[in-house]
Amino acid sequence: MRLHSLRDRALYVTPIRLGLGLAGVAVARLAGAPAAGSLLAFAGGAFVTVFTLYNDPRARFLPRREPEPAPAGAPVAGRLRQAFAATLPSTAGVSVLAAISLGFQPTLAALLGGVSAGLGLAGGLYALRADPSLYVDPRSGVVYRR
User: Fold this and answer.
1) CA dist., res. 52 & res. 44, Å (int)
2) Cβ(71)–Cβ(145) below 8 Å
């Protein structure tokens, strides 16, 4: 078992998501998307993603469990491992879809770039308020307090 810090994981993946989002809109422009359309799609994708993540009504129905005490001697994953583990499946999936859409609808790639940037922005905002003593085992999903 290798633990991941909930706060650090969200913080470390933020630049990856923002970079992929900006790359998505830049490549969409190079592929022929109109400037105004691609920027509006990017901004709209980012806004809707952040808004949805912070106002998800399903969160009220999730069971709230107290974190368990962390196992003694459980190692914490390094920064890169935490960041890249956090990209799966959401960031990787959005990026693959954006790459596929470049060939037939570049404005859609800009929108998906905005979704990726929105994921990064929401993760960065979460990292600012997350409890630094909370860790998760990504394989089981169990949350621990250290």
Assistant:
1) 12
2) no
Is pLDDT above 80 for 59?
A: no
Query: Does residue 60 surpass a pLDDT of 90?
Result: no
User: Which residue bears the tokens 């600012």?
Assistant: 128
> What gap in Å lies between CA 101 and CA 118, rounded to an integer?
19
Q: Please calculate the CA angle 93-96-99 and round it to the nearest 5 degrees.
A: 150
Phi, psi dihedral angles at 134 (to 5 degrees): -95, 135
Judge if pTM exceeds 0.85. Answer: yes
Query: For position 119, what pLDDT does the model report?
Result: 97
Domain ranges of the chain: 4-145
- Residue 57 has a pLDDT of 83
Q: Residues 56-62: contacts with CB within 8 Å, 24+ apart?
A: none
Phi, psi of 39 (to 5 degrees): -70, -40
